[in-house]
Specification:
Blueprint: H1 3-38, E1 43-46, E2 74-80, E3 89-91, E4 93-97, E5 100-101, E6 107-116, E7 130-136, E8 149-155, E9 174-180, H2 189-205, E10 213-219, H3 224-227, E11 231-236, E12 243-246, H4 253-263, E13 269-273, E14 280-281, H5 289-292, E15 297-298, E16 306-310, H6 311-320, E17 338-341, E18 351-356, E19 359-368, H7 388-395, E20 407-415, E21 427-430, E22 436-440, H8 461-465
Parallel strand pairs: 7-11, 16-17
Antiparallel strand pairs: 1-8, 2-3, 2-17, 4-5, 4-21, 6-7, 6-13, 8-9, 9-10, 11-12, 12-13, 14-15, 16-20, 18-19, 18-22, 19-20
Helix pairs in contact: 1-2
Pfam families: MOSC (PF03473), MOSC_N (PF03476)
Organism: Aureobasidium pullulans
Keywords: Membrane, Transmembrane, Transmembrane helix
């Protein structure tokens, strides 16, 4: 190689190395800038970041087969869903309060629906009355809700930026929501700025598929001054019509419009916060005040304060599915609060009362399943058939009350001592805790297990279909 060519190659390598080093430095700086922008003054982010206790959920060691007799049932993972049907926050430990795990399902998106006024039974007249209602939305009808990210930030007195007067400290923290949004761009200054923001997002996340993200924040417990701009309105969730707090004003109008576009919703949308003074009371299969010490209630959970599921149960269902587009059935499709390990498949089906870390739980009923788990939580794409089709074939008619409706997992109520008359009782639960099964229901379709009661299992289908609360 002659000296001039060799010099050119060296120069080219030097330029490339310098460019790569500059890009990496720029990328690192962008990451630092993003972290700085996402930090909430006076607060700290809770939950697992960059890791998950469910990362090995597909491992054969969690299939519940050939369990050692000394293997104790354990809590494998804890999840909360601050905004109903949006992405979860995984926790290492959590407070258990009257409505379930702290911060769980306290916010809910709705859309404005025009519906005919229900007539009284026996009224045969032509119905010409219409009413506008805020009706809850979930992944069942809006799958892209699964792609709205959530974070929980709570006040941290040890933070160097902490001040009792800080905006989000006064609100006892906030839920940070974000979603991907790539605006259209053209060859002008505005378009070039947009193109640069896209480039920055890809470089900062070191992912060619990355998009810019739009963020908004929601107060966890707004103070009186902040609350004064909200309205209390009736919204519909299933057959309930609770009064909740419309906090849509917390989302800038431009952001709300982009969120509508992202979700693919054409009707007006609004965001509601559960009213802490007006929880939806749970009766039906839940324990009464005489047993629990209080009448259980929920924020925006479908029916009961807590849901529980064995990872082995999901693995068992996964093995029977032949047309799932992914290699394994992700347990996170089922959006349980508590995932268990060291249990045989469907062992939880006949539990009646369990205990963990000095707290007992009333296992009220099996969870009736719809087609929401057809939504892949990773991509937000809803499969037309699975796993609901297979669940109907393999888990239908498991519960006499649910009939053909498939069931998987259980609904629970925490039995909090001295809870009556108090707004909150704090009891800690954490991953790795042992679950003790105290009593069981009779096994449906067979003889009762040793030591079980003869009481048939109750079920959530009554709650949804009849909904005649006592």
């Amino acid at each position: 190689m002659d000296s001039s060519l060799q010099g050119g190659v060296i120069a080219l390598i030097t330029i490339l190395a310098t460019s790569i080093a500059s890009l990496l430095a720029f990328s690192n700086q962008l990451r630092k800038d993003q972290e700085s922008e996402s930090t909430i003054p006076g607060c700290r982010r809770i939950g697992l970041i960059g890791r998950s206790n469910m990362s090995d959920q597909y491992s054969p060691k969690h299939n519940g087969e050939n369990l050692d007799s000394s293997a104790a049932c354990k809590i494998k993972a804890l999840f909360i869903y601050p905004v109903k049907s949006c992405k979860p926050v995984e926790l290492e430990d959590s407070d258990v309060i009257l409505t379930g795990l702290r911060y769980d399902r306290q916010f809910c998106f709705t859309q404005l629906k025009t519906e005919q006024v229900e007539k009284e039974e026996g009224d045969l007249s032509v119905n010409s009355e219409w009413v506008h209602n805020w009706k809850f939305i979930t992944q069942r009808n809006v799958p892209r809700l699964s792609q709205v990210d959530t974070q929980i930030w709570i006040p941290d007195p040890s933070s160097p930026t902490y001040s009792p007067k800080a905006e989000w400290v006064k609100s006892q923290g906030c839920v940070v929501c974000s979603f991907a949004f790539t605006p259209e761009w053209s060859w002008n200054m505005s378009g070039l700025r947009t193109a640069f923001s896209i480039f920055k997002a890809k470089l900062a996340q070191r992912d060619i598929k990355a998009e810019p993200r739009i963020t908004f924040k929601l107060p966890i417990a707004p103070d009186e001054e902040r609350s004064s701009k909200y309205t209390r309105e009736v919204m519909k969730i299933w057959k309930d019509s609770p009064t909740a707090i419309n906090i849509t004003s917390e989302i800038p109008p431009e952001t709300l419009a982009k969120l509508k576009y992202f979700l693919g919703v054409s009707n007006p949308i609004a965001l509601f916060k559960a009213d802490p003074l007006n929880h939806r009371k749970v009766f039906r299969n839940a324990p009464r005040i005489e047993e629990a010490g209080y009448q259980p209630g929920v924020g925006f959970a479908d029916a009961y304060p807590l849901s529980i599921m064995g990872v082995a149960s999901v693995q068992k269902v996964s093995k029977t599915i032949t047309n799932l587009p992914t290699p394994h059935l992700n347990a996170l499709r089922f959006r349980a609060n508590i995932y268990l390990t060291n249990t045989p498949p469907f062992a939880e089906d006949d539990w009646k009362q369990i205990r963990s870390r000095n707290l007992s739980y009333h296992v009220s009923c099996r969870t009736t399943r719809c087609d929401l788990p057809n939504v892949d939580p990773v991509t937000g794409i809803k499969d037309r058939a699975e796993p609901y089709k297979t669940l109907k074939q393999t888990r239908g008619f498991v519960d006499k009350g649910a009939g053909a409706h498939p069931v998987l997992g259980m609904q629970m109520v925490p039995l909090l001592e001295d809870a009556a008359g108090k707004g909150e009782i704090r009891v800690d639960t954490k991953t790795g805790s042992t679950i003790f099964v105290y009593t069981r229901y009779m096994a449906i379709g067979g003889s009762p297990r040793p030591g079980t009661t003869q009481q048939p299992h109750r079920h959530p289908t009554q709650y949804f279909q009849q909904h005649n609360r006592q």
